[in-house]
Amino acid sequence: MARDKFYITTPIFYPNGKPHIGHAYTVIATDAMARFQRLDGKDVFFLSGTDEHGLKMQQTADKEGISAQELADRNTAVFRDMIAALGGSNDQFIRTTEERHHRACQAIWQKMADNGDIYLDSYSGWYSVRQEAYFDESETTVGEDGVRREPLGSPVEWNEEETYFFRLSAYQDKLLAHYEANPDFIGPAERRNEVMSFVRSGLKDLSISRSTFNWGVPVPGDEKHVMYVWVDALTNYITAAGYPDTNAERWSYWPANVHVIGKDIVRFHAVYWPAFLMSAGIELPKRVYAHGFLFNRGEKMSKSVGNVVDPFTLIEHYGLDAVRYFFLREVPFGQDGSYSHDAIVNRTNADLANDLGNLAQRSLSMIAKNCDGVVPEKGTLGEEDFAILKRAGEALETARTAMGTQALHQALGAIFNVVAEANRYFAGQEPWALKKTDPTRMQSVLYTTAELVRRVAILCQPFIPGSAEKLLDLLAVDKGARSFAHLGEENALVSGSALPAPQPVFPRYVEPKTDGEGA
Ligand code: ME8
């Protein structure tokens, strides 16, 4: 039977600087969602990439005295490295400077033009280079420093040029009808409400070309113009699926199941993008989900962490899975979140080192000592054993529902509730006491605990893939038997199978010694 397809994307990043923690956050979360669906049996296509055109890229390159292409090449390499360092399991990495992407952009442009939605006119307005967007004068304010800024704070400058327009105003009603008919199209609810009131307040036609610089995709038939960078950027999602070759195998992944983005770019994804697609006669993505922003709480990070906004430094300092776990568990996905050294250490020491790490370490080392290093004898399990084992299956159901609405923190919460209960089970059963009084029962308790570790480790894979893999290796679980379909009884550990020597999987974070200045 053909597996269900699941297409998921990150935003494509501007490589005009180095990646920071916000970029890392988007990648970690999207990666966890992609891994979850893969483990749940879907045929997943996970896309990330870089957004290499636009005025911002050109200006940064000019400042550095290099070409925009050189700047894009240099920083795209760093973004790729960051995704790899984060354990990103993307199936493709797209660059908007690729030839296939130019072809896709020109094809969608042509479709929109053929549909009568593109016309040439002149435009004047307040342009923010940082946002790569025009703003209405009423949206801008002049600060005490005399600088005019758009609502998110970047400076705007007056711009007048001849430009092609997209007839966005013609899509107001169609967009509203789409939001009404598809309540899940935009999440979370705050973002949906925001978008709907923006669209209800009236849509103006959108300027979609630039003629004052040429770092972009040329407009078909008018090479003086390059496409507005957002037309080009959004199109990446269909380029990667093979557009305009809609007979391509990859096109069967479209429409995307979810575009994961930051809340700063909702308007582009939930208003402009669906309007472009409607105009071009292409199906719309099923969902656009915007996560919140991360802020450093302003507390001092450990001195040796150095530049805390650098994802590479964070990973090196705390370890990849600690970083992934912290952001996914601590920040309710969809809301803003803050991070600090203390918060990272407290959360990961409590949940990973103490709860999950100890559960695995205590049970596995008892097994190594008392059961000849093989999976203990299951014996006859009792009600309490079955009850706790069942909890893992229930956690999968809860996690599946939560992941369906991108509630990653809830999915992790459900899984770690089972870890906490498993610890209570283990402590309550006192296998160390049973060793003398009832060694057969001790074997059953150790068996149950090891089997629980197997189930929990399977569930943890999307979030902390490296550590989950180590746990499954310690239980000698076959590499081909680690998906959610293997969670149940049929694939349970087999008594008597050999186990490797146990090793700690989650080291406790210990403050590095300093020369008295404090960490
Ligand atoms: O917007 N906290 O690229 P970009 C959380 N190229 N997430 C953050 C963040 C923060 N402080 N700062 C950035 C672009 N992000 C366009 C996208 S898509 C067709 C084109 C995240 O590099 C957030 O997800 O400026 C944001 O949307 C993304 O980084 C890309 O930012």
Automatic annotation (TrEMBL):
Residues 7-139, 155-363 form the Methionyl/Leucyl tRNA synthetase domain. Keywords: Aminoacyl-tRNA synthetase, ATP-binding, Cytoplasm, Ligase, Nucleotide-binding, Protein biosynthesis. Monomer. The gene is metG. It comes from the Bacteria. InterPro entries: aa-tRNA-synth_I_CS, Anticodon_Met, Met-tRNA_synth, Met-tRNA_synth_2, Methionyl/Leucyl_tRNA_Synth, MetRS_core, Rossmann-like_a/b/a_fold, tRNAsynth_Ia_anticodon-bd. It catalyses: tRNA(Met) + L-methionine + ATP = L-methionyl-tRNA(Met) + AMP + diphosphate. SUPFAM superfamilies: Anticodon-binding domain of a subclass of class I aminoacyl-tRNA synthetases, Nucleotidylyl transferase. This is Methionine--tRNA ligase. NCBIfam families: metG, PRK12267.1. Belongs to the class-I aminoacyl-tRNA synthetase family. MetG type 2B subfamily. It is found in: Cytoplasm. Is required not only for elongation of protein synthesis but also for the initiation of all mRNA translation through initiator tRNA(fMet) aminoacylation. Its EC number is 6.1.1.10. Its main location: cytoplasm. Pfam families: Anticodon_3, tRNA-synt_1g. It comes from Nitratireductor kimnyeongensis. CDD domains: Anticodon_Ia_Met (cd07957), MetRS_core (cd00814). PROSITE patterns: AA_TRNA_LIGASE_I. A motif ('HIGH' region) lies at residues 13-23. Residues 375-508 form the Methionyl-tRNA synthetase anticodon-binding domain. One of its GO terms (molecular function) is methionine-tRNA ligase activity. A motif ('KMSKS' region) lies at residues 300-304.
